[in-house]
Amino acid sequence: MNKKYQSITFICMNLECGGTERVITNLAYYYSKKNISTSIITLGSANLFNGFKVSRKTEIIELKKKYSNYIFKKFGNLIYWISEINKYMKRNKNSIYISFLTIPNILTILASINIKSLHYGSERVDPVYAEISLFWKILRLIFYRKLKCLIVQTKEIKNNCKHFISERRIKIIPNSINVNMIKPQLRTTKNKKLKVLFIGRIEYQKGIDIFLDAIVKISREKERKLYDFEIIGDGSLSHLVQEKIRVNNLKGLLKYRKKSDRPLKYIKKSNIVMHPSRYEGMSNVVLEAMSYGKCVISTYQASSEIITNNKDGILIKSLSSLEIINALEKVSSNRELINDIGLNAINTISNKYSEKKIFKLWSRTLELANE
Questions:
Q1: What is the pLDDT, as a whole number, of residue 255?
Q2: What is the per-residue pLDDT across 303-341, written as a single tens digit (0 to 9) for each?
Q3: What's the CA gap between 24 and 48, in Å, rounded?
Q4: Helix, strand or coil for residue 261?
Q5: Distances from the Cα of 298 to the Cα of 207, 344, 365, angstroms
């Protein structure tokens, strides 16, 4: 790598199960295999997800909260985090710093004000939709210009970040898939029920409420015999899933489990992966499902930069239960379409999102000489 810089330090909120956290751990693992020293600083407990692969050589530094969540004491945590990051940066002036998400980005910028450092930030959600307070929005507007570079996943996010930092310093790097580890699971579905899977955080953003409405409507029609639905995930709307199952007697039609350390096992068994998000950065679930040759049904708002409609997936025009039902009926009445979409999806992932291709983009952006 660049002789001046001898290590890479990632700064994030935590290492729980999520798309951002997967990107961080994948990058840390990749560069540690290249004999580049890697560290991950978390703002709070790391809560490392069992499904992530982290090298023993990667140091995880937890800056645990010192204060409770009262409004004034929250500022105490922020000052503590800035101070600790600042101390770390003074000890490690030859490290490249990559922070992820708005709060870690801003805190790292503030921590480095009196230090000459190489700091890259990354936004993983379109700022138009990101749920952050006015306080952080103002700080973002003021301080993002101090970043060496801002890394985003899609053209739309780049376009919406031009207010904070000049366009030439915004780089698009999509998420990646290890295509060497993937064995496509194309399943014959002619006379079988279609297994429809939703996997992810159970939040409003993910459109879980609309998906549940669609399942309830299907449960009242003869078409219910065509599907087996499964939802895997946890979040603030978990109670809604449980309530819908109980009130509408969906036990024979819909299975729900709160968590799984092996999400790919369920993707493999499915025929259709449902991803009805209202907005998204770039979904790892969509990429993983496509790499296994699954038919993904998603929204234009979430997946239009990944999926070409009716070619390697299906995009619904607007998020409604009727649109979801129509998309399901479309593939249910034409089972060959599922396999055709699956084959095209595998090709899309291999051609555009392989780890080899995406890690090269990271290395080029970070100016790592020997990558």
A1: 96
A2: 999 999 999 999 999 999 999 999 999 999 998 999 999
A3: 12
A4: coil
A5: 10, 16, 30
Q: How far is CA 260 from CA 47, 124, 231, in A?
A: 15, 23, 11
In the structure, what pLDDT confidence band is assigned to residue 75 with cuts at 50, 70 and 90? confident
The CATH 3.40.50.2000 portion of the chain extends over 7-176+354-365, 180-352
Sequence length of the chain is 371
Residue listed under structure tokens 């103002």: 138
Beta-carbon contacts of residue 212 (< 8 Å; ≥ 6 apart): 240, 241, 244
Q: Distances from the Cα of 329 to the Cαs of 49, 305, 335, 350, in angstroms?
A: 36, 24, 10, 29
Query: pLDDT by residue (tens digit) across 149-205?
Result: 999 999 999 999 999 999 999 999 999 998 886 666 666 566 689 999 999 999 999
By C-alpha distance, which of 239, 223, 313, 222 is closest to 276?
313
Contact 270, 195 (CB under 8 A): yes
SS3 content of the chain, % helix, strand, coil (to 5): 45, 20, 40
Q: Is 3.20.20.370 the CATH number for 180-352? A: no
Is residue 302 within 8 A of residue 277, CB to CB? The reply is yes
Q: Is 66 in contact with 83 (CB distance < 8 Å)? A: no
**What is the model's pTM?**
0.88
CA-atom Rg of the chain in angstroms = 22
Question: Could you tell me which CATH class the domain 7-176+354-365 is placed in?
Answer: alpha beta
190 within 8 A of 202, measured Cβ to Cβ: no
